[in-house]
């Protein structure tokens, strides 16, 4: 996946250059770069319960890649049982390893402040006994473009929202933080359609490929599309049934 970053308190520089962070930050970048569009499609289409967006598919893939690199998932910030399992996840980070804590945040815009505070709590001293002690945090979220292309709910907070929140919350967030904004897939987008009852479900629509002669072809099976097959926008491949979008219709 491609992404952009924003550093709070120069974290974008510190995480690359300081020894205590450089290897850890490199692992996060490597984990994100290793997730391909095909992996997202396979994870999304393999879900037993049809989803509206690719958020959970990405969540599972990020978890798998970070766990491979020995990151600890679902890390409690505090050692006190009252703020641990008894709190049912309230004081828990998505991932932690040595000096860095990570939140993967595809939830409601109203949760933005809390998602910024949690890695800060993990990185600062506290009156409650700590289970982990990091010194910096990373929040991974979706850009506005990913939100639109990935079928995300309209209320989901975006990378742009997180960056905007940093300014008024700046004095409350003393730890260095990097906000990672995931960019939309390059080969597909999600079309949201009506499901059973009032539910809405997502459908993968791949961008049609083009031949040197200008014909559109299905990227899955190579079938050449008739000139008017997609009515200028979206359709399904006659050969394999893959949902397709003519790229020119997007611009």
Feature tags:
single chain, elongated, alpha/beta, 251 residues, 7 helices
Describe the structure.
- α1 crosses α2 (19-33) and α3 crosses α4 (55-68).
- A hairpin with a 5-residue loop joins β9 and β10 (216-217).
- The protein is α/β, with parallel strands linked by helices.
- It has helices spanning 11-17, 19-33, 37-45, 55-68, 112-123, 144-149, 159-169, and strands spanning 3-8, 72-76, 92-97, 100-104, 136-142, 177-182, 188-194, 200-207, 209-210, 216-217, 234-236, 243-245.
- The chain is elongated and about 65 Å long.
- The longest helix has 15 residues, at 19-33.
Summarize the structure.
This protein is of the alpha/beta class and about 250 residues long. It has helices at about 10-15, 20-35, 35-45, 55-70, 110-125, 145-150, 160-170, and strands spanning about 5-10, 70-75, 90-95, 100-105, 135-140, 175-180, 190-195, 200-205, 210, 215, 235, 245. The strands form three sheets. The chain has a six-stranded mixed β-sheet, with helices on both faces. A four-stranded mixed β-sheet has the order 7-8-12-11, with helices on one face. A two-stranded antiparallel sheet has the order 9-10.
